[in-house]
Amino acid sequence: MEANIPLSMAAAWGAVDFDWRIIPLLIFGWYLLLKRWERNGVLDRWNATRVFGFVLMVRTKKGLKMLEKVAKPRRLWRIYGEISLWVCTLAMFMVGLGLILAFAGALISPPDVEPPSASELVAIPGINPMIPLWWGLIGFIVALVIHEFGHGLLARGHGMRIRSFGLLQLGPLPLGAFAEPEGEELFKAPRRERQRMFAAGPATNLFAAFVLLIMIGGIAGQFASSNQSIHVTGIVKDQGADNSGMLPWDTIETIQGEDVIGLEGFRELLDQHQAGDSVLIGVLHEDGTRETVNATLSDKYTYYQSLGFSSEQLDSLAIEPGDPFLGVEGLNSNTAGIDRLAGPLSPNVEYTMLQRTLIAPFHVVYTMFIPFEFQGVAMHPNEEAMLEADDSWLGNLVGKEGLLFLVNLLFWVMWVNILLGFTNLIPMVPFDGGHMFKDMVHAGLSRLRAFGRKLKLWNFHPLWVDQISRKASNFSSLGLLFMLLFLILMPYL
């Protein structure tokens, strides 16, 4: 992976340098190899076939016996399927609405952004610079397995047989997985049962993400800050901190010789001074050296006015003329990195249990953007450097690097589960959301037909319901596909 930031040992384990331009050659080589295996009968021995020319579909009956055992409490899995259906229906409409709003926003006000590189357009670990190879592969394999196992459990819970499990591969990379039910049984199954089966896959991914978030929250409690000070991630140009020689990722340890304890301690010490005062600030630089710098505080009120804030806005923010302003951005505690990953489940944030429960779903969605903020890593290496293993059983057992390894593993498995879950809920065929949407339209039209027959207002033919639901599914799929392609290609236009 190409990155502009140095990687820690834990993050670097999942990184790889890769030139995406050789991908066509690798795919062509893979295609020739598949053709040879096909001629020699190797694919037949593997119970495998080629699809789309260069994708290998491998079927296996391994896991079917385990599926039978786990699926025995049929009623339990039907309840699970109903819960999954409600969760996925809500998520599906949120995904569809989000896509429509993003498309509308892009039409009204096209964003002025740099077009992504070709490697960023594919969600393939190691090729996409935001998805490390090994972490991504582990995450995709785990997410695909539990996704298809979720489908299989609900299929068996409703009496549908599973022929085999399978994997779609492009070389060593997993592109997808499948649980292959008996086609006739799936077609003849009641709509509600079929919807539960389709919903179970992405729902299992999302539920797994919550479990993994809880585990990350537990590990977050095994970390401690190397000191109780705070750090800055940015320096405001031509202000006191900048003029004094402070740098991004500096840790502020003292102000006028007094120790800085947390964000509140920093504010209390700074508020003892006024604009124009010169203060001595003890900083710990990123390279481990310590320095005492002399910073002249500027006027916070004047600075915010220069940004366009009105007097009324500044009054509402309780900012007055003469308030001291050091000129630093991104003030954070030294546990900010792990706190950001754990979100409301971090032991370092003060939330009630109810608040943690309500915020957690939104935090799960937020974690999807973390690799894009930090160039393909879960936590900035500078944030990792500010942590140490707490004096706890797990911290003593595996140490700091072991804890970071576990955090990276759990994060990337969680991230891929979230990505796979929400992607499959796009209401367009062939995604699970597309099949769910088609059955929902069919169910709605069937109720409308029954209502009309009951009141003797109309009597649609059953085939009309089938035809309209199929057309609605096709049109929605094409429309959403157009929106996706537009959003992807718009930066290049």
Report what the structure shows.
The two termini are 27 Å apart. Helix 5 (74-108) crosses helix 8 and helix 6 crosses helix 8 (191-220). It is elongated and about 80 Å long. Strand 3 (162-170) and strand 4 (173-181) form a beta hairpin. It is of the alpha+beta class and 493 residues long. The strands form 5 sheets. Strands 6, 8, 9, 10, 11 and 15 form a 6-stranded antiparallel beta sheet that branches. A 4-stranded antiparallel beta sheet has the order 1-2-3-4. It has a two-stranded antiparallel ribbon with strand order 5-16. The protein has 19 helices and 16 strands. Among the domains are: 9-217, no CATH class; 230-333, Pdz3 Domain, CATH 2.30.42.
What descriptive keywords fit this protein?
493 residues; alpha+beta; Pdz3 Domain; 6-stranded antiparallel sheet; 4-stranded antiparallel sheet; 19 helices; 16 strands; 54% helix; elongated
TL;DR?
The chain has helices spanning 9-12, 23-40, 42-45, 64-70, 74-108, 133-157, 183-188, 191-220, 240-244, 262-270, 300-306, 311-316, 336-342, 353-366, 370-373, 381-385, 393-423, 432-454, 462-489; strands spanning 48-51, 55-60, 162-170, 173-181, 223-225, 230-231, 234-235, 251-255, 258-259, 278-284, 290-296, 298-299, 324-325, 328-329, 332-333, 387-389. By secondary structure, it is an alpha+beta fold.
Low-pLDDT residue intervals, each spanning 5 or more residues: none
Largest sheet: 6 strands, antiparallel
Q: Got a strand count?
A: 16
Q: Mean of the pLDDT scores?
A: 84
Principal-axis shape: elongated
Whole-number radius of gyration?
28 Å
What structural category do the secondary elements indicate? alpha+beta
- End-to-end CA span: 27 Å
Total helices: the number is: 19
Strand content: 5-15%
What percentage of residues falls in helices of 4 or more residues? 40-55%
